[in-house]
Amino acid sequence: MSGSETLFTAALGLSWPWQVTDIRFEPEAGEIHFQVGCSAPRLSCPACGANDQPIHDRREHRWQHLHFFQYRAFIHAPLPRVRCGACGKTTQVTVPWARPGSGFTLLFEALVLTLAQAMPVAQVARLLGVNDARLWRGLEALVGSARSKESFADVSRVGVDEKHIGRLGFISLFHDAGPTRRVLLGTAGKDASVFEAFTADLIAHGGNPKTISAVSMDLSKAFQAGAAKHLPQALPCFDRFHVIKLANEALEAVRRNEVKSQPALKGKRWGTLKDHRRWSRAQIDDMHWLTHSNLKTARAWRLKEALRAIFETAKDGMGPEPALKRWVSWARAVGWRPSSVWVPPSEIICPAFSTASGWVCPTARPNRSTRRSRPPSPGPVDSARTGI
């Protein structure tokens, strides 16, 4: 074996009985090919592990490797098949540089996995000079292998949301709402049947649908029906975004109705809908005037901010019960009569209250000591200043 072959044997991380036997450089095609051979006359049986078994035959295989500078690199090897006298099987040996059935080396697949997290697979394929269908087959095999080793036995709270992906249409993503925050399943559709697919996958990975104590979702009736049928023990929790969206829509409806008799409300829309930390100088002045008025829009804005305060207290790890009671008292002050129910922390640390559209429960998140402190919200956290 020449010096270059010895060098590339070490560079490819090969050890006995594998070694580089030939190197073929094709600059016109932009490729470099490494021929790898097995020098052992007899091998162990891959099926039963019996030692010193004869080689039945050899079959040529090729794998694409990481680029060698600007050239595509390929490894060629005639893989031996061992005829075992102990178990009677003829089995092909596995190679240390690639997984069985793959046309890529392990290092090449590791690069593809890394790039696929930052860019579309089609773009990765163009970059590496590979057909994207081959990359998808490899990715599906790797993800499937990794998911088969996952355990969902500790999953007790889940979240679900739908997403539209081009020609594929809608898919529903389930995630663990506990400390791991991992994606559990992605399945086609956005109707109640996605919960059936989720519970089947949950059971297949060691989970139990009866131990799911809470499920966070949007206000979709299909999701509510699916959760009630397949996760009967779970408390349905409407996520913060959709609940606050309804409150913003109700606030804007009040403002649009009142601006007809109160022209001063014209142009105040974005100040009432935006977070106070994003107000401009003019919006600060507008909201100072509005919060010191007795207009219905001001009261509606306070109720909306009080509702947000419930989520904030739960998110920061503080007890949300005081915020809930304050919100209920303010709601009653303007004539709304929602009922309030406190869910014990043993089930889920969050407040829940019933409305015409169902149960609302902002899911609590663990307190993070690294979270940056934020200034207190105006209005709803100071009842003396709100004037309600």
Please summarize what this structure is:
With 388 residues, the chain is α+β, with helices and mostly antiparallel strands.
Number of helices: 12
Structural class: alpha+beta
Large-scale geometry = elongated
Beta-strand segment tally: 14
Q: Which residues form runs of ≥5 with pLDDT under 50?
A: 334-388
How many domains? The number is 3
Report the average pLDDT across residues.
80
Order of helices and strands: HEEEEEEHHHEEEHEHEHHHHHEEEH
Describe it for me?
This protein is of the alpha+beta class and 388 residues long. It has three domains: 3-145, no CATH class; 160-238; 257-386, no CATH class. It has helices spanning 3-11, 106-116, 121-128, 132-148, 193-204, 221-230, 240-258, 269-273, 281-291, 296-315, 321-333, 383-386, and strands at residues 18-26, 31-38, 42-43, 53-68, 71-83, 90-92, 157-165, 169-176, 183-188, 214-217, 235-238, 340-342, 351-355, 358-360. The strands form three sheets. Strands 1, 2, 3, 4, 5 and 6 form a six-stranded mixed sheet that branches. A five-stranded mixed sheet has the order 9-8-7-10-11. It has a three-stranded antiparallel sheet with strand order 12-13-14, covered by helices on one side. A hairpin with a 2-residue loop joins strand 13 (351-355) and strand 14 (358-360). The longest helix has 20 residues, at 296-315. The termini are far apart.
Features:
14 strands, alpha+beta, 12 helices, disordered C terminus, 24% strand, 388 residues
List the helices and strands and how they pair.
Elements: H1 3-11, E1 18-26, E2 31-38, E3 42-43, E4 53-68, E5 71-83, E6 90-92, H2 106-116, H3 121-128, H4 132-148, E7 157-165, E8 169-176, E9 183-188, H5 193-204, E10 214-217, H6 221-230, E11 235-238, H7 240-258, H8 269-273, H9 281-291, H10 296-315, H11 321-333, E12 340-342, E13 351-355, E14 358-360, H12 383-386
Parallel strand pairs: 2-5, 7-10, 10-11
Antiparallel strand pairs: 1-2, 3-4, 4-5, 5-6, 7-8, 8-9, 12-13, 13-14
Helix pairs in contact: 5-6, 7-10, 10-11
